[in-house]
Design a protein that fits this description.
heterodimer, A: 343 residues, mainly alpha, two-stranded antiparallel ribbon, 14 helices, globular, B: 448 residues, alpha/beta, Rossmann fold, 2 domains, 5-stranded parallel sheet, 18% strand
């Protein structure tokens, strides 16, 4: 029972990242009709927003410390962050400790800007081109983006810890009446799940309850008619691309304490997220979220040692097996519109 | 008036022959053909540095390349000479190798066996490299070693830790200075017993490829010899990223030690996540839960941040060693690049000097002469204490370092502390050790 609960928690946690990335992918596909293979790179850039903010906050000047020596035996130069000079060592250290949550504020404008520039600068030229062209150009863009990140930050993972207050684990076992330490789960992963639910709810609320969202939804249903009404739907769709980039970026920034970010992390999520979109139904926002969490849980259960011992390798293929089954039996996905991908 | 013999047919014939000659790999051309592949000319000799310049191990590859460039400088008489000053063999005098200036070409392994073979082949066939060295993965090392054997050039392995490199996949043209998983197991076991006792239950998470299997097998063997019980061994896909599904069940498995047979990004992620899951704060079977990382790399450990504190592992070399040779190398490298070298940089630097030394002692670039000079070669002054290149398997035997993640690092480089220098005798295993069987060196191939 304890294992079961832990794998559910794991699945929700994995599913959070899948759902957030798939949500952005679906927004872009639904509004602009573009299959964006650079979306994983946006997740990665979001993670590096946290890394960048961390580096900005720890920008330092060097002070000679004659009591210590460096690796060559010379008197050591000790780095003192400027933020200590401005706010004092105590508050300065607290701000640095809270880099990841603070990076949310940093990532939102950066990611919207990245998204808008990406859409205006490159992707809009491919709206009327076949999906194969879109896939090639966005995949190429993803490779360029990750190589740029690698050139600046190197290839090794960069530690980006959660605030000290959230580094421990929560003992679910005690809460549920089990023995202590039987069901423990890291605080940050729980926060990540709650964060993703809030972001998903905010995106849905934005689309459902604002005039902007209403126009976008109308445009997704019938772009031509909305245009004929004199509404500049292109501008709104560009902003939706920015919003989708921000969602992916926030997902990446908050993910950094879970996996130390590296330039390749976007690719690791990209293919899985596309499978999530296909399973959920191309163009269906609720479908993307539902499939994200379902496939996350499924993958977690498939990674249990008892399951792997029974069917070796199942953990690596289970999501693709589900995708095959869905494509064969229900090509429009779990919640896709009738007719989509059923031609 | 002279009569020209220039005919259309003659021109075509000559062009065809010239074209065929130019298209032919360098080592097959008559001018360079002196009984072995890529015999160098009178003035220069070309070495091929095959390192990961892209991909997940690119930072490690960059450090290897820095070390190679430093080695080339020292061989050519530039810089402060580094470990040439401490090396017990004194035949290298800073005039290149056998009077030829050392030049080099580089290839990108991408930490991919096919890409690594292609880049090594290109350096041999197009650039005339007489020796290939480098790499940061056992899969790559084994693949390139096989290619070098077939091409008739010497392969001086870089960072490769699987037993198989000098075990079932050993080759007469291949040589490894780096240690292996068997040595890690032998070095770590006594330290684990001293710190954690002999009544422990271990759970292994293992990277699913040649090095991971080799590491798990060695750790299993030596911890079980201590009296530890192996509760479970789970293979994890390389580059899994999120290991939560594999780590979460550990707490309820009955184990009180988690052994992470992971390297690189996998090690960073699995260790960080194991700590996040509170395993280090657990009490299991009445004991503190412990984590062990059998192969530590300082470059990689940096990615794990505070998670490595207090974790035991092993390493081939560390810049904080105080012997004269290590300090000479750290001084050379640190002065040139501004930070201390990694273990990967050290092994690559040493391999280059050892190759140059063997050529000089053997008096020839012929791979068979080089191999003969390296086989059974005893040396010191390279940072690992007295070292033997064993003739039977082309594996170096030397001291192994057991290290621990430092609790209070004084700098960004000061991540590991040396807790034990395990003597060479303890880590030396017999030639007929069962884990190293299944292949043979074969005979040296001079190529051409």
């Amino acid at each position: 029972m304890e294992s079961f609960i832990i794998q559910i928690l794991n699945g929700l946690d994995k599913g959070s990242a899948y759902a957030l990335i798939a949500l952005g992918l679906t927004l872009i596909f639904g509004t602009l009709g573009v299959v964006n293979f650079a979306h994983g790179a946006l997740f990665m850039i979001g993670a590096f927003c946290a890394v960048t903010l961390g580096r900005l906050l720890t920008l330092s000047h060097e002070v000679l410390d004659p009591s210590r020596t460096d690796f060559l035996g010379n008197p050591a130069m000790v780095k003192v962050p400027y933020i200590y000079d401005i706010f004092g060592p105590e508050l300065g250290a607290t701000i640095i400790d809270w880099t990841v949550p603070l990076s949310i504020l940093f990532a939102i404008p950066v990611m919207i800007l990245v998204g808008v520039v990406m859409e205006r600068g490159l992707i809009r030229h491919f709206y009327k081109r076949p999906h194969a062209d879109q896939i090639l150009v966005t995949f190429g863009l993803a490779i360029v983006l990750q190589e740029i990140i690698k050139a600046f930050y190197g290839a090794n993972p960069i530690p980006t810890p959660a605030p000290q207050a959230f580094t421990g684990s929560f003992d679910f076992g005690v809460l549920l009446g089990f023995d202590p330490f039987t069901v423990i789960y890291p605080y940050w992963r729980l926060i990540y799940f709650v964060f993703s639910v809030v972001i998903i709810a905010a995106v849905f609320a934005f689309l459902q309850f604002t005039t902007f969202g209403m126009v976008v939804r109308a445009g997704m249903a019938d772009r031509e008619t909305v245009g004929l009404l004199g509404i500049n739907i292109d501008r709104r769709f560009t902003l939706m691309f920015g919003l989708a980039a921000a969602v992916a970026g926030l997902a990446g920034a908050m993910y950094t304490p879970i996996n130390s970010p590296n330039y390749h992390m976007g690719m690791d999520f990209l293919v899985l997220s596309f499978v999530v979109v296909v399973v959920g139904g191309m163009g269906s926002l609720p479908g993307a979220v539902l499939a994200g969490f379902l496939l996350g849980i499924l993958q977690s259960f498939a990674s249990m040692s008892a399951v792997i011992e029974t069917i070796p390798g199942i953990n690596q293929v289970v999501i693709y097996l589900v995708a095959i089954i869905i494509l064969l039996t229900r090509p429009r996905g779990l919640m896709g519109r009738k007719g989509v991908m059923e031609d | 008036m002279s009569k020209s013999n220039f005919t259309r047919r003659g021109l075509l014939k000559t062009s065809a022959m010239a074209g065929a000659a130019l298209a032919m790999p360098t080592y097959l051309r008559a001018a360079a053909h002196s009984g072995f592949t890529n015999a160098p000319g009178e003035s220069t000799v070309t070495l091929g540095f095959n390192v990961p310049q892209t991909g997940a191990y690119a930072d490690e590859g960059a450090d290897e390349l820095r070390a190679y460039q430093l080695a080339v400088e020292h061989l050519n008489g530039e810089g402060d000479g580094g470990m040439l000053n401490t090396f017990t063999s004194k035949v290298l005098d800073g005039t290149g190798i056998l009077g030829r200036k050392v030049e080099y070409v580089t290839g990108d392994t991408q930490t991919n066996s096919d890409a690594a073979r292609a880049s090594a082949r290109s350096m041999i066939e197009k650039d005339g490299a007489i020796m290939i060295t480098g790499g940061s993965s056992s899969g790559v090392a084994i693949a390139v070693q096989g290619l070098c054997q077939d091409a008739g050039v010497i392969f001086m392995a870089g960072l490769t830790h699987s037993n198989d490199t000098t075990g079932k996949d050993k080759r007469a043209n291949g040589f490894r200075h780096f240690f292996n998983t068997e040595m890690s197991g032998r070095a770590l076991a006594p330290i684990l017993e001293a710190n954690y006792g002999s009544d422990r239950k271990a759970y292994h998470l293992t990277a699913d490829y040649t090095w991971g299997w080799s590491q798990e097998n060695s750790m299993k063997t030596y911890t079980e010899d201590l009296g530890w019980e192996t509760v479970n061994t789970v293979l994890t896909p390389v580059g899994a990223g999120d290991f939560s599904s594999y780590i979460a069940p550990v707490a309820q498995s009955g184990a009180d030690v988690l052994i992470l047979n992971h390297y690189g990004g996998d090690m960073v992620n699995s260790l960080t996540q194991a700590v996040q899951f509170g395993l280090r704060n657990l009490e299991a079977n009445g004991k503190n839960f412990e984590i062990v990382v059998p192969l530590f790399s300082r470059l990689m450990a940096r990615g794990a941040g505070d998670s490595i504190k207090g974790i035991f592992g092993s390493t081939n070399w560390h810049w904080s060693l105080q012997d004269e040779a290590s300090q000479a190398f750290v001084r050379s490298f640190g002065t040139k690049y501004g930070f201390p070298p990694s273990q990967a940089a050290h092994t690559c630097y040493v391999q280059t000097l050892l190759y140059a030394d063997a050529v000089t002692r053997g008096g020839s670039f012929n791979p068979c002469a080089v191999a003969e000079a390296l086989e059974g070669f005893e040396f010191d002054g390279m940072g690992n204490g007295p070292t033997l290149y064993r003739a039977e398997d082309h594996q170096c035997f030397k001291d192994v370092l057991v290290v621990k993640g430092k609790e209070n690092p004084t700098s960004e480089f000061d991540l590991l502390e040396i807790v034990e220098i395990t003597p060479r005798d303890v880590v030396t295993y017999p030639v007929d050790h069962p884990d190293f069987q299944g292949g043979s060196l074969g005979s040296c191939n001079p190529g051409a």
